[in-house]
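User: I'm designing a mutation panel for Dihydrodipicolinate and want to avoid disrupting the core. Could you give me a predicted structure to guide residue selection? Please restate the sequence first so the numbering is unambiguous.

Assistant: Good idea. Sequence first, for numbering, then the predicted structure tokens:
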Amino acid sequence: MAKFATHRDAGLVILPAYYAASLGTDQEQIIQYYVDICKESPVSDSAALIVNGYSSNPQIPLFLYNFPANSAGLDMSSAIIEAVIRQAPNLCGVKLTCGGSVAKLIRLSSFINSEPSVNLCRPYPFLLLDGLISDLTPWMKCGGHGTVSGIPNFAPAASMRLWALLNKPGLTDDEKREAERIQSILSNADVAAVPAGSMSCTNSTDMEWIPDAHY
């Protein structure tokens, strides 16, 4: 697999559900799992990495992916994630698709702001990404950097408009109301899509609530 990954710009690493029973009773195993994978990440030949600040022989930078629903209920605390960040300089960010994600975001953002070495030892600022778009507005207000969500696959216009508004300084009252309206539409879409899993994206063109149609 490493051979086929060499053209990639980054990787997303989730905990192995098969070993959930063992990992759930030993947090050090979880930390070491990510540290080892980051250490052994293959060298990338991606031109994008080399051009944008990495060395001539860069390892593929990795994201820690906390997604309990897809890893047999394993849910990493912010303390575990902080430990991985400290020990794995090739870790370039996290994606949180879990309960209490905004609270974890606040703690991780505070940790990164208090530890300048986190960003000094990396070519890019460490990224804190949401796994859902339903709470993107508070996510951005609490120090997050964006979202990797399934909803923009079938609601690109609404998603990009919300993103533009959240990154625009000095919003007018009309723009604030627009952002609130779009966030509400996308949040309702998340509620409908998440329980359905991948099939929700596959069948999205048949859904009456598709957000771009309402936007």
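For picking mutation sites, this is relevant: The chain has two domains: 1-149, 151-215. The chain has a mean pLDDT of 87.
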